[in-house]
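Hi there. Long-time user, first ticket. I'm pasting a complex I've been working with (about 336 residues overall). I'd like to know whether the download I got is complete or cut off, because the file seemed smaller than I expected. Thanks.
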Amino acid sequence: MLFLLHTSRTEGLEELRILGGDEDKAVLLVGDAVYLGLPGQVDVFETLGVDAVFAARDAVSVRGVVPAEAVAVLGYDGMAKLILDDHDQVISL
Amino acid sequence: MSRTLTIALLSGSTENDDAAFVVNLARAVLARGDAVNVFLYGNGCNLANKPVPFDGRSPISDALRGHMDGFVLAGAIEELAAAGAKFATCHTTEYSRGTEGLAYLDGVAWGDVGNSYTRFLMSTDVLLTIGR
Amino acid sequence: MLSTINVVLRQAPGQEASVLGIRAAYAMLTAGGFDVRLLCLGDGVYNLLGVPGYPGDLVRRFAAEGGTLHAHDEALDARGLSGAALEPGTEVLDAAAMADLVADAEATTAY
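Hi, the file is complete. Here it is re-exported in full:
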């Protein structure tokens, strides 16, 4: 299951907890949500049982931030593959 | 086999970068040979119309204009539609914004949630709602 | 292809997103023939409080036409609301049960 977060609102993390349950989960951060992938915040995803965290390259670049090492930065080709090929369900929050 | 992504876009052009993300994602999806539908819903319907340029002197600095140009998506939407992306509006959300009668960008269709949106869903593999 | 769709409401009735979500859920159910569930989280549970006028009427029509209504128990507790205050037939669910509804659908879309 892939969760696509597009805002920095931390309520999205609670929604991810509720909707994701015990399913295998990955997260794609786009737009302002890339702030959730910074070193000071990213650890929360591990506590939510998220196996992989990805961030949109353009959103990272335009904000001038450096995501945590564990966050894989993707261009749109990679994001399209992640969204269309790699998960049985994609939920945007 | 070709996959189909449908996105309900609730944000308009400039209040955040949701619309730019959707346009760029749609471009990448089409480049793969897959299909994309975009339903312009809520403030998303603000993206549907032909721009009306201002004729007078507009004192926008080059720096600010360069920043704002990142949110001008009319040309990109028309290109995507020409390349096969389907765009439809929710006419009800246009009605409340007073824009239902304005000229549409090439390739954007007047639509509604009961017909256009549900028709999109009939062949959809992945459904996203982007915006707030 | 899609067959069962969850529509998640996260915002209170005064936000346009809530009406958009309810309208989408109703259309998917009645025009699309999908199996549709309305999952209310956070402030979204306020949409189940017997809201008068068009938004509340549409929630009630959605339920009458076979859509199902679900409220997150923690959201109700945090707001001092009881299940008895909600639209008739609303199922109050814990997080695990909400996640089960998500897992067995093909799409979950949040407003």
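A couple of notes from our side: The radius of gyration of chain A is 12 Å. Chain A has one domain: 2-92.
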